[in-house]
Amino acid sequence: MPIKIPDQLPARDVLRHENIFVMPESRASTQEIRPLKVLILNLMPKKIETETQFLRLLSNSPLQVDIELLRIDNRRSKNTPEEHLNAFYRQFEMIEKRNFDGLIITGAPLGLVQFEDVVYWDHLKKIMEWAKSHVTSTLFVCWAAQAALKLIYNLPKRTREDKLSGVYQHEIRRQFHPLLRGFDDTFLAPHSRYADFDTEYLAQNTDLDILATSEQAGVYLAATKDKRNVFVTGHPEYDADTLHNEYMRDVKEGLEPVMPVNYYPDNNPENPPRASWRSHGHLLFANWLNYCVYQQTPYDLENFSEDKFNKDED
C-alpha cells in the first residue's frame, strides 16, 4: 500500500522515480480505508532531504500511511526554503488537539550542545509530554533518542570524546521481539553522533528492552516494554552518500574529522560509497508500523486513551 503525501511535496517525484507507490491526497480522498496517521517532527536542517529519506522507509509496508510534517518552531531556516515550510509543515498548535497512530522525531545536529541550551528544548518537552496521551507509538532517532532518555528516564547527557561516524556491525539481543522480526543475527547500520549509548549503562538505569547492540557503537535499538517508545540511535534512513557529504563538509570547515569507519570501498574517500544497510532499515520501519503502531492503535483515533495501554501492560 502507498504512503499518502501532499500532491506537490518534492519527495513525491523522487520516490516515484524509485518506483515507490506514492498516493496524492486527491486520490486518497476517494478510497474508503482508515490509513495510519503518522506525524514526523523534522529537526534536521536539510528538511527536504530528511523527509524524503523517512518517507522512503515508511513506504515499504502493506499499510496505507498518511503523513503529516511538523516543525519545531517558526524560526527561519537556513537550509530549507520558507515557501516549502509554509506549504507542507504544521505548527504544533495546529495539531495538538488531534491524535496520531505514530510519531517520528528525527535527529538533530546538537550533539555538543547541552539540553538546556537548545533553543527549542522546552517546546520539545511539551511535544513529548503531549505524545503520551495523543500518540500510540513514538520513534526517537539519534539525538532525539538521547533527548527522550533525559525526559523519560532523567538520564544525563552522555557525550563521546570523538564523533562516532561510519557503518557498524550489530547483533540482535532478543531474537523474537516484534521489532526484530526477520532480522539477521548480525546487520549493518550507519551512525553519525557524539551521543554515547553505553549498553551496560542503559541496562542498569532503565527498564528498556535492549534489542540490538554494537561493540563499537553501543545500543542501536531499544524499546519500552509496551512498545510505545522506540529508540534508534543510528540513521537507518541515510542515503548512500549522506555520511560522505557530512564528512566532506567537516573537512572543508577544517574540523579534521575521522574518516567514516567501514564506509568507503578500500577505505578510500575517492571511491563512491555503497549503502549496506537498506534492507534492515526498511525492515525496522515496517516492523515498527505493524507491531508498534497498527497492532496497538485504536481503529477510531478519537477513542485514544493512555489508560488503555496501561491496562494492557497490567
Major beta-sheet overview: 12 strands, mixed
Task: Supply the CATH architecture.
Answer: 3-Layer(aba) Sandwich
Tally of contiguous helical segments: 11
- Using the CA coordinates, give the radius of gyration: 19 Å
The 3D shape can be described as globular
User: CATH topology, which one?
Assistant: Rossmann fold
Uncertain runs with pLDDT below 50, 5 residues or more?
Answer: none
CATH homology superfamily name: Class I glutamine amidotransferase (GATase) domain
Query: What top-tier CATH class fits best?
Result: Alpha Beta
Would you kindly provide a brief summary of this structure?
The protein is of the alpha/beta class and 314 residues long. It has helices spanning 11-17, 25-28, 47-58, 82-88, 92-95, 121-134, 143-153, 199-205, 242-252, 278-294, 306-313, and strands at 3-5, 22-24, 36-41, 65-70, 89-90, 100-105, 135-141, 159-172, 186-195, 209-214, 218-223, 229-232. Strands 1, 2, 3, 4, 5, 6, 7, 8, 9, 10, 11 and 12 form a 12-stranded mixed beta sheet that branches.
Primary descriptors:
314 residues; alpha/beta; 11 helices; globular
Explain the overall architecture.
With 314 residues, the protein is α/β, with parallel strands linked by helices. It has a single domain (3-299), classed as Rossmann fold. Helices cover 32% and strands 23% of the residues. Strands 1, 2, 3, 4, 5, 6, 7, 8, 9, 10, 11 and 12 form a 12-stranded mixed beta sheet that branches. It starts with a strand and ends with a helix. It catalyses: L-homoserine + succinyl-CoA = O-succinyl-L-homoserine + CoA.
